[in-house]
């Protein structure tokens, strides 16, 4: 029954996204919600300027309707997942709106974005504390776990949510890249959630699979629409929350390995340039490095999807619940 529920959730969410996107794209064009391409980025991206963005609204809408409809219980896990996805998605929406409508290229300030992320992470923590959520952290692939208590665990998951949402955001740079990689990660976490007997987390993952795959129909190269921060931050919030409620916080490092690699490439690049005055990569995040090395955009995307699939498989293999 759980498997049938998962398939139904994926299917409905997918159909909602496929229907909603062609209705939204013309509206975004009329409102001139077009992508602003970085001048210092790959020159091949300049032709993407003006492509409608904020398409992540489609993902959030399809996800929300499917999740609310098919989640079998409305318990703490359900509300934590909803707060994380919609809360982080709202931050992304405000960021996109300011960039495009207010013509402020950087969107929300770093302080404003951090405040929003801390606020919604804090609400998640409050809900978990009220429910007596375990503060134990398991080490993937071993029988070992550590528990330093709430004073460590809750600041840890707040930092975790900030890191994951930003890592996912960094991955959104090529047509279809984040849509495909996140669908794979959500697929792995759906299996983990079913093993961990958290049906809300499983349905959340399934709703996101359908939503991002439906969006991918219009986001694959050449993209007709971009998700913007609205979509990428909502995806990051959902993945982080699923890892938390299923007690697989550290397993994200494997299943979400592509996101980790993308973020590390940015960190390494910044540290190297500030300390040595030299760049390690031609451009960061690392997907742009491969583009500037002569790879076609489609080749980079397919390769990253393949790496994501291998890491998701590895994550499931070492998960002790399987």
Blueprint (SSEs and pairs):
Elements: H1 2-30, H2 56-70, H3 76-100, H4 110-130, E1 137-138, E2 145-146, H5 150-171, H6 177-195, H7 199-219, H8 228-245, H9 252-255, H10 257-276, H11 286-292, H12 297-318
Antiparallel strand pairs: 1-2
Helix pairs in contact: 1-2, 1-7, 2-3, 2-7, 2-8, 3-4, 3-8, 4-5, 5-8, 5-10, 6-7, 6-8, 6-12, 7-8
Walkthrough of the structure:
It is globular and about 50 Å long. The protein has 12 helices and 2 strands, in the order ααααββαααααααα. Strand 1 and strand 2 form a beta hairpin. The model has no long low-confidence stretch (mean pLDDT 91). The protein has a two-stranded antiparallel ribbon. The protein is mostly helical.
Global shape: globular
**SSE order, one letter for each helix or strand:** HHHHEEHHHHHHHH
| Proportion of residues in helical segments | 55-70%
Q: Low-confidence runs (pLDDT<50, min 5 residues)?
A: none
Major pleated sheet: 2 strands, antiparallel
Distance between the termini: 19 Å
Sum this structure up briefly:
The protein has 322 residues and is mainly α. It has helices spanning 2-30, 56-70, 76-100, 110-130, 150-171, 177-195, 199-219, 228-245, 252-255, 257-276, 286-292, 297-318, and strands spanning 137-138, 145-146. It contains twelve helices and two strands, in the order H-H-H-H-E-E-H-H-H-H-H-H-H-H.
Features:
single chain; 322 residues; mainly alpha; two-stranded antiparallel ribbon; 12 helices; globular
């Amino acid at each position: 029954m759980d498997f049938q529920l998962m398939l139904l959730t994926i299917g409905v969410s997918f159909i909602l996204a496929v229907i909603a996107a062609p209705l939204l794209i013309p509206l975004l064009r009329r409102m001139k919600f077009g992508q602003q391409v970085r001048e210092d980025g790959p020159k091949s991206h300049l032709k993407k300027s003006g492509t409608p963005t904020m398409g992540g609204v489609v993902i959030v809408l399809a996800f929300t309707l499917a999740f609310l409809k098919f989640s079998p219980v409305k318990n703490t896990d359900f509300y934590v997942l909803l707060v994380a996805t919609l809360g982080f998605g709202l931050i992304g929406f405000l960021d996109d709106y300011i960039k495009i409508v207010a013509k402020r290229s950087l969107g929300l300030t770093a302080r404003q974005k951090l405040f929003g992320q801390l606020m919604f992470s804090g609400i998640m923590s409050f809900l978990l504390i009220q429910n007596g959520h375990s503060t134990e952290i398991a080490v993937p692939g071993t029988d070992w776990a550590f528990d330093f208590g709430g004073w460590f665990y809750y600041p840890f998951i707040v930092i975790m949510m900030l890191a994951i949402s930003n890592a996912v955001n960094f991955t959104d740079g090529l047509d279809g890249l984040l849509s495909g990689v996140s669908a794979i990660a959500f697929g792995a976490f759906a299996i983990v959630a079913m093993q961990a007997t958290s049906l809300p987390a499983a349905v959340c993952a399934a709703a996101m699979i359908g939503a991002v795959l439906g969006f991918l129909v219009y986001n694959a190269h050449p993209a007709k629409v971009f998700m913007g921060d609205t979509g990428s931050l909502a995806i990051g919030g959902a993945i982080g929350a699923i890892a938390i409620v299923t007690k697989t916080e550290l397993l994200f490092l494997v299943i979400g390995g592509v996101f980790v690699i993308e973020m590390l490439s940015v960190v390494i690049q910044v540290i190297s340039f500030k300390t040595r005055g030299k760049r390690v990569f031609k451009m960061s995040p690392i997907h742009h490095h491969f583009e500037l090395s002569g790879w076609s955009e489609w080749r980079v995307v397919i390769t990253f999807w393949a790496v994501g699939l291998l890491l998701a498989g590895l994550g499931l293999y070492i998960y002790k619940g399987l």
